[in-house]
Amino acid sequence: NNNKQHEEEATSKRMDELSIRLQREAKEALDHEPELCSLLKRTVLAPDVSTFEQAVAATVSYRLLSNNSSQESSCFCPITLKDIFLKAFDEQLQNEKEIFMGHDMSEAVRQDALAICRRDPACETILEVVLFYKGFSALVCH
């Protein structure tokens, strides 16, 4: 039981570090590339985003809905789609039997983002993965 608590604390620390890193990278991008302001303020730097999962949910829902042509009306509003992603993260955390390959959904998404950043020589930041990598968005949706 003590080992499990220690593992949970270590996981929580890693999670917080990734959230902090993503926020820092977003603020640096905002300073260096002001043309990203609108995108960042609707996704990673949105007022209601404080965790990595919230940033991913906001970004993926924004990307899915912004790719919809203006002639078609979307089935979902951005908030509804974001809430669907957040509900999936939350429900999975509360249902331990749904852990797959030793990871819950949040940890798997975090590991995917880190792996993409580490393996793609053209990628320098986690922010790039979350904002621009279609493959990452596809993994989140899966």
Automatic annotation (TrEMBL):
Pfam families tied to this protein: SATase_N
GO terms under cellular component: cytoplasm
GO biological process assignments: cysteine biosynthetic process from serine
GO molecular function, one term: serine O-acetyltransferase activity
Chain ranges of the Serine acetyltransferase N-terminal domain: 21-141
InterPro entries: Ser_AcTrfase_N, Ser_AcTrfase_N_sf
Source taxon at top rank: Eukaryota
Name of the molecule in the record: Serine acetyltransferase N-terminal domain-containing protein
Organism, as annotated: Grammatophora oceanica
Upper classification of the organism: Eukaryota, Sar, Stramenopiles, Ochrophyta, Bacillariophyta
